[in-house]
Each structure stands twice: as C-alpha cells, then as structure tokens.
Design goal:
By secondary structure, the chain is of the alpha+beta class. The chain has 2 domains: about 5-60 and about 110-175 and about 305-380, FAD/NAD(P)-binding domain (3-Layer(bba) Sandwich), CATH 3.50.50.60; about 65-110 and about 175-305 and about 385-410, D-Amino Acid Oxidase, Chain A, domain 2. Helices cover about 35% and strands about 30% of the residues. The protein has helices at about 25-35, 65-70, 110-120, 165-170, 195-200, 245-250, 270-285, 285-295, 335-350, 355-380, 390-400, 405-410; strands at about 5, 10-15, 20, 40-45, 60, 80-90, 95-110, 125, 130-135, 140-145, 150-155, 155-160, 175-190, 205-210, 215-220, 235-240, 300-310, 315, 315-320, 325. It is globular, with a radius of gyration of 22 Å. The protein starts with a strand and ends in a 6-residue tail after the last helix. Bound molecules: flavin-adenine dinucleotide. The site of flavin-adenine dinucleotide has 29 residues, from helix 1 and helix 9. Flavin-adenine dinucleotide binds near residues 46, 165, 334 and 335.
C-alpha cells in the first residue's frame, strides 16, 4: 500500500499505509493510537479550531473500556476516577425504593480525552481542519477540507460524531431519530452541595424516578482530575419526555427566535426554560435531587437520539464511534463503544490482504454489535418517551421501568 499526501501544495510519498482520521475526540484518538501500533501513519483532522479539552461531563466506565485504553497505550496507573459502590433508587418523597451493590469507576470525559491526547502527541493532529468532501480513486482516497487543502490516504476514518460529515457523504439516508425525550445535564462542585444532600446522596449512583421520567446522579473527578473528598463534582442527567413538534422545537429555539436543529449551545438555552426546570424540580424530584438542580448555575440540554447504521465500511472509508451508531445514554456505552470500534478496526486491518477486505471484516463484526446496543438502549429508555408508537415500545416500557430494573440495567458492564 502506498501513501501520498497533498497539502497546501505539498506532496510526499511513502510505503507506510496512511490513515486520515476525521474527528479528534475520543474515537479518533483511539483509532489513531491503535492504527499506529499496527504500523500505520496517522493524520487526525479535527474541525474545532480550539482544543477540545475542558468541555466534558461525567463518564461511567466499564472494564472493557479500560482494557481498550490499555491496548492503545495507557497504563494501569492511569486507571483513575471516583469509585462508587452502591446504586440506590429513590421515590419522589425521598424514600429508598431499591438498592444494589455494584462497583464502578466514574471518571470524566475530560480526563479520558486528556490522557489520550497526551499519548498521541502533537505531531499529525490538526485543529481547524473541517472535512468537506471525499474523493475515491483506484487504490487510494482523498479527503478535501473546507479551507481548500486535501490529504491523500489509504483509508479515511469517520470519527466525526453523531452529526458526521463522513456518514452524510457515504451513507446519506442514515440520520439521527429523536427518541421523544431530552436529558437535562449539570455538574455541581462537591463543596457547593448542601451537607445533608451530600451525606445522603453524593457517594451513590443515585436514581430518582418521577412517573415517566428519570434522574441519575453520580460523583466524578473534579478540576485537574482531582479525586480528593471536597474536590470532586456531582454529575447528573434528568430525562424528561418532550414531544417533537412544539416542545422540542421550543427548547431548541434561542431568545432571538433562532432554531438550532439537533442541539442548542448551552449559553443560548432560554432562561425561561431553566426557570421552568427549577420549578419542576421542586415539584417532581426527591428533595436531594431537586437540590442538585437548584445548585447548578447553567444546566444544559441534550435531546436524545437513536442512530443506527446498516453499513459502516464503504471501500476505503470507515465509520467509527458516534458517527456509526449512537445509543441512548442509559447503556452508558458511548465512549466504550467508540473505543471497542477502534480496537476492532485495527485488528481487522492488521494482516488483512487489502484495506477493503479489512474494512469488510470490521463491518461484519461491528454492525450487529452497534445495532444490538442501540436496540437495548431503546428498550431501557422506552418508558420516558413522549409517545409509545409500537407494541414493542409499550412492552419495553412495561419491562424496564421498575426501580429494581432501572438500577440493575442502567450502564452495567453487560451492554
Ligand atoms: C468536547 C466534547 C465533550 C464531550 N463530553 C462528553 C461527556 O461529558 N459525556 C459523554 O458521555 N460524552 C461526551 N462527549 C461525546 C463522547 O466523546 C462520544 O459520545 C463518544 O466518546 C464517541 O466519541 P466520538 O469520537 O465517536 O465522537 P465525538 O466525541 O462526538 O467527536 C466527534 C469529533 O469530530 C469532530 N468533527 C465533526 N465534524 C467534523 C468534520 N466535518 N471535520 C472534522 N472534524 C469533525 C467534532 O468536532 C468532534 O470533536 C463529548 C464529546 C466532545 C467532542
């Protein structure tokens, strides 16, 4: 395999296979690190002009994620986070409804991203490079960027998230489908949490279950990945049904009347929606959970979508992570699935007779897995949907809404 590179007029040749990875977040970095380990040259192109660090919230980790991170080059000493031992579901009046022992390490997106970014290094990671088009040729493929530059490669990996440009080019019929509810998310500094709430809730993976809704909370590492008591953060997500036509559209419309499509930047969420959220918290949530919502300066909104692809390999182009599949968050699989996709991609390409054959093997392994995870997450979240359209959804809503089911099934290792 040959690799050629044209950029701003530059042209070089080498016999080392070259992958251009679109998207420099966790999926892109994992793919880059693992492809380097099998001898590829890698160039990562990230649209954002500024570093991605400092923006994420909490991540529930699974053993499979750590094993994938170790394969990419992290070490056991970097396994770091806040350890949670118990899951507890609470009623709206604060009574305990169900409890389960389940040990898990809670970390933050920023911590994982920071470790991978440092391991990858500064070379061949380009900010402000937004993919605009892909041109296939016999034996190679070219990525064209918005700034007019181009990179020639043996393989293009679309690790560009659930609004993927690579997917839009390769598989335009696959689009995110709104699930019928949103997640309101927030992070609270541990020291700002009222002492009584802290004592009852902070150390737990806590669940509060108003009818048709769900709020989860767990502790995560604080600034600079601090795990010391007093320096951590409380992280929460409150899932609420919102119908698509008017409710969601209104939430995604800013104070100037501009509608923001799939998601709205946090600073543009209208103050009236945050006021309403706080009022509802006092009415609907157990007092300790309401306290967290009240304490958050700026809760932000995540509409929940399902995204399932039927193919993730197209000649010399592969999709990975959220670009390929996005499951509702209840399975806690986003980062883990992206990491396992990267492991599978490198394994399939290692020793393959051609890039195309390697990608076919990758497609055969990961498409059924991605579809299975998306379906599982649909079932777990069905009871929060504004509308239950099918008998399958109604049955899933019945099966997965009890406090015992919710604490036993949410974000467990067996996704
Ligand atoms: C800043 C940030 C913070 C996050 N925080 C959390 C969190 O707290 N909790 C959580 O569960 N998940 C979080 N996520 C999402 C999480 O990373 C993913 O769900 C999961 O890890 C899969 O990652 P991914 O790399 O496939 O996609 P993503 O993490 O979505 O990354 C896709 C990347 O592709 C880039 N991109 C998009 N289009 C183009 C283009 N045309 N050209 C070049 N680059 C492009 C985007 O800027 C982005 O950096 C965050 C993502 C980002 C980018």
């Amino acid at each position: 395999m040959t690799a050629r590179r044209y950029k701003h007029g530059m042209h070089t040749c080498s016999t080392t296979p070259h992958a251009v990875i679109i998207g420099g977040s966790i999926g892109g970095l994992m793919a880059g690190l693992l492809l380097r380990r099998i001898g590829w040259r890698v160039t990562i192109c990230e649209r954002s002009a500024v570093p991605l660090s400092g923006r994420g919230a909490g991540i529930v980790t699974h053993e499979a994620l750590w094993q994938a991170l170790f394969q990419a080059g992290l070490t056991e000493a970097q396994r770091h986070g806040v350890v949670v031992h118990d899951r507890v579901a609470f009623a709206q009046d604060g009574r305990e409804l169900a409890r389960m022992r389940y040990r898990q390490i809670m970390t933050s997106w920023d911590h994982l991203f920071g470790m991978l970014r440092a391991l990858y290094g500064t070379a061949d990671y380009h900010l402000g490079q937004e993919l605009a088009g892909i041109v296939p040729h016999a034996g190679h493929v070219t990525a064209r960027f918005v700034d007019g530059s181009a990179l020639d490669a043996d393989l293009i990996v679309g690790a560009d998230g659930f609004r993927s440009t690579v997917r839009a080019l390769a598989s335009p019929n696959i689009r995110p489908v709104y699930a019928g509810y949103v997640g309101w998310r927030g992070m609270v500094e541990e020291r700002q949490i009222a002492p009584a709430t802290h004592e009852r809730l902070f150390a737990l993976f806590g669940f509060c279950l108003p009818p048709g809704e769900q709020m989860i909370t767990y502790p995560v590492v604080g600034e600079l990945h601090d795990t010391r008591p007093g320096h951590r953060r409380g992280n929460y997500v409150w899932y609420r049904p919102v119908e698509a036509e008017h409710g969601l559209r209104d939430l995604l419309t800013d104070a100037r009347g501009a509608y923001h499509g799939l998601s709205i930047p946090p600073p543009l969420i209208r103050a009236s929606h945050i006021d309403a959220l706080r009022r509802d918290a006092a009415l609907l949530l157990a007092p300790d959970f309401a306290d967290l919502v009240m304490t958050t300066q700026a809760p932000f909104l995540q509409p929940i979508y399902d995204l399932a692809s039927d193919r993730i390999a197209f000649g010399r182009v592969a999709l990975l992570g959220d670009a390929a599949f996005q499951a509702r968050p209840h399975v806690g699989a986003g980062v883990t699935k992206a990491a396992l996709d990267a492991v599978a991609l490198a394994r399939a390409l290692h020793g393959a007779i051609s890039v195309e054959a390697g990608l076919e093997a990758y497609n055969a392994e990961r498409v059924p897995e991605g579809q299975r995870i998306v379906q599982r997450a649909r079932h777990l979240g069905a009871y929060m949907q504004a509308h239950l359209a099918t008998e399958e959804e109604r049955e899933a809503a019945r099966q997965h809404h009890s406090p015992e089911a919710v604490i036993a099934e949410t974000a467990v290792a067996d996704i």
